[in-house]
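Bumping with the actual sequence this time:
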Amino acid sequence: MTSESVLWLAPPHQLPHDLATLHAAANRPDRHHTPPGHGRVRERKPREAVFDEYFAVARCACAPAPLLIDALDDTLAKVRALSRNPDGTPTEPDLELAAHAAGLTPRSDPHELRTHATVRERWIQGHRLFFALTQATIVALRHALHAPSPAGSAVGLDSAAHFLRAGASALRVTASFGVDDYHDIVRPSMAPPHVPRTGFSGLWSADHRVLVWSLREWGRVAPAKSSTLRPAHRRLVEVLTDVHHAHVGVCSRFVGSGPSLLRGAEPGVQALERLCRRRHADLDAAPAGKPARLPDARDATLTRHH
């Protein structure tokens, strides 16, 4: 694994608590810098280390916002190139909305033709984008939690919804290959001897763990927040449901009633649906309100500092 192939991310607990920090990193003059040569985090939980290594992710205890912005920019560009129609138009416009929510201006030609990748490359690149979007969602949820006004919290919630919706797009692009390819190429690569542990799972991801905690924390405090936040909260709940449906759809297509790598005899779809219900319950403790249309991330309200 060369330094050029590594996706650098900060440990998720070090991520910033406001979107303004991300936007400032997106606008810094030294964008696309050389990968960090120091500060690499080596002390991690064993399963998290195995998970990161499989996807060529390295953790750096340096400036988390620039790392995340560069990771988003790079992974969005790669997956965008995998998800274009033959005429160059995007098949997943939610990827563009997520870029704008992070303060990024896409650096690729909007009319470029799609590129081709092996099944393994597609699996890796799509997941790496999903990880970067997961970290961006954590930042947005922290923004919602700590914003001094309901308007600021709403910006955080709607940004989180944009990042999550782009995550569903990333899942679709990641899994856009045949069932036989999954069983012949992808699934064996996640089991011994290719990885040193059995039970390979997204639950091993440090970013997923912190995202779940952040969703749970927002669900816990949401009922006490201003009633003006209920539409934004409901939009977040609906988008999270869409992400879960996308994930279950991928699992159902590839695994069907077969067992997951993690749960052994338990059918993979059944285990995933149970986890999805639990996540939904953690978040959806707030009273219901009629959801409004999710604002376009390019709206000025999403780039204003709160």
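The tokens above came from a reply further down the thread. Strands lie at 7-9, 57-59.
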